[in-house]
Structure formats: structure tokens, C-alpha cells
């Protein structure tokens, strides 16, 4: 039976409105935008909707899902790839569908990881300011040649694999760790190894595995100690992979030589909003931001024109596909399986 999805979309930004409205499938749904996150304070806004469209920092724990279910919400349509903020077991028990956008532009995130590596290394962000200020002194801008360096890629799914392909063009030695190795990357010259060898050998370590119970604080005091002195650590995956306090200590002792973050453990309090005229209360974040060799971006790895278009298309297809009983617009069953984490 076909019905028009009635959708409450949370954490909406102006660019989300634009990219969703631009897609032809937008005409087939009723979409209400809320520019605030979904949490216990805002859940009352969901009355009367059958679908909730959420993003990376919306709260979808047991309490929220139970209330959503009671108010008639049948489908959680995530407009992102990661779903660590959704209590999947609870959604399953409640019989709610959960969908996502599995791979909207892995290259976009991989290219951002590479941008962090290149900027931290060659310090173009500092050079830009110096030159604009008439300061052509090179002291403090010394980098290293990426060619022949060993880069460790933790997690070689869509994004990790895209990064391996980019790095192979730089002539890096690439070490990978993933419980499910990708033979195509081996053909490019990447070597799979165990996590401890990757951590202790690499000059640069980039994290691309999902956040779950096993990977929470994968980077902690002990794993940091096992790394090379002066190592570069890049995280464009999820903040909870890194113990931020341990990382601050490692920066203070020079164990960590460079840190590039696009995600942060407590980012839900900060990211995607302008706090420039407020006093930021998060002392851990503020301490991180003081180091000259730390570069932080506010979860923008996904933020390309192409990725926004793909997010809108797949999310709209998921909403309409669910309300159509998984007939059109899905081309095949495999697409349905990877997009829908739970089909009740
Ligand atoms: P994916 O599901 O294609 O790949 C994840 C890979 O990690 C899989 O191959 C899996 O076997 C592996 N893995 C799982 N547990 C592991 C562990 N403990 N150690 C090593 N490998 C492990 O996911 P995809 O699309 O590559 O995304 C990776 C992560 O990137 C997502 O979970 C998401 O959190 C993050 N992401 C960040 C974005 C941003 O804007 N910064 C945008 C999109 C995703």
C-alpha cells in the first residue's frame, strides 16, 4: 500500500533544505524541517509524523525511540552512513525501520582526510596567513615528503579504501587493518597486518572504522604509547574512537607530532552551529584547539556538492521505498539490504 511519507527532519541546515528541495522525489513526501537536534527536549515535535529523518548528533537512544514508537513513528531515516547514535537493538524490538545512506561519497571523506594530512604536514594554513601579512619567513613551516612514508589505514570499507587509492598515488607504503580485508587494495600494493603492527610502524595513522563497543577509545594511552614518536593521527570517522584526554597528554609529551580531527567525542554540544560569540565551556576541546600542531574541522568531511545531492537522493528513496513496501524506487534487493539496517 502506497502512502505519502510525513517526515520530521531534525538538525536541518539551509544546505539540507536546498539539496532535498532540488530533488524530484521531494514532491512525493511531506517534509517539515526543524533546525534543532532531536533529543528529550524536542521529541514532542514528532507528534503526527510517521518518519523521522535524523543526522549524526541526533539522539536516538532507547528512551527516545520508545517515545517515537508510541507517537506513531515507523521509520528512522538517517541521512548519513554512521548509525552509532541509534539504539539498533531497541529499534528492532519495537519493530521500527531504520535506514541510512551507506556510501554517498566515500571519496569526499577520504579527500578531506588527505587535506588534513597535507595541511598539517605542509602547514599551508599558516603559510596563507603569513603571506597575507607580508611575512615570508619559512621558519616553523618545515614539512616532510609524503612519498615512501608508511600510512596506516584502520578500517578499509568505502572511505578507507578510497583513501588507500589516493595514497597509492603518492607512493606511500600503506598498511591496513580490517577484520574483512579487501583484495582489490592488496592488488594496489597495500599490506594487511594486525592492529598493533600498524600502530607501531606507521608515520601517519588514519581512522576509518565505525564507532561501536569494540572500537570505543581504540586510541587510548596504551595504544598511543605503542606508536612512533612524532606520529600523525587523523580521525574523520567518529570522535569516540579517540580518548581525547589521552591524546592531549600524548601531544604534551611530543609522542603525537600532529593531530587532524574532523570529529570529536563531545561534538554534539558544539558542531554545526556558530558559537563564535559565546564562551565555549568544553575545556578538553579548548585545550586541543590550543596546540599548534592540531587541526580541527567541524565534521565537514561529507560536505561536497556531490555528497549532499547523493544524501538527498538516497534518503528520499529510502523514505518512499519504505512507504511503498520496498517496491520502486529500489532497483534491486541488494540496495535495500545495505540501506535498511532494520526492515520490520
Ligand atoms: P564502511 O562500513 O564501508 O567501512 C567500515 C570498515 O571498518 C569495514 O570494512 C569494517 O569491516 C571495518 N571495521 C569494523 N570494525 C573495525 C575495527 N574495530 N577495526 C578496524 N576496522 C573495522 O564505512 P565507511 O562508509 O567507510 O565509513 C567509515 C566511518 O566514517 C563511518 O562509520 C562514519 O562514522 C564515518 N563517516 C564520517 C563522515 C564525515 O563527514 N566525517 C561521513 C561519512 C562517514
From TrEMBL:
Residues 13-325 form the D-isomer specific 2-hydroxyacid dehydrogenase catalytic domain. Pfam families: 2-Hacid_dh (PF00389), 2-Hacid_dh_C (PF02826). GO terms for molecular function: D-lactate dehydrogenase (NAD+) activity; NAD binding. Keywords: NAD, Oxidoreductase. SUPFAM superfamilies: Formate/glycerate dehydrogenase catalytic domain-like, NAD(P)-binding Rossmann-fold domains. InterPro entries: D-isomer_2_OHA_DH_cat_dom (IPR006139), D-isomer_DH_CS (IPR029753), D-isomer_DH_CS1 (IPR029752), D-isomer_DH_NAD-bd (IPR006140), D-LDH-like (IPR058205), NAD(P)-bd_dom_sf (IPR036291). Residues 114-301 form the D-isomer specific 2-hydroxyacid dehydrogenase NAD-binding domain. Belongs to the D-isomer specific 2-hydroxyacid dehydrogenase family. This is D-lactate dehydrogenase. It comes from Marisediminitalea aggregata.
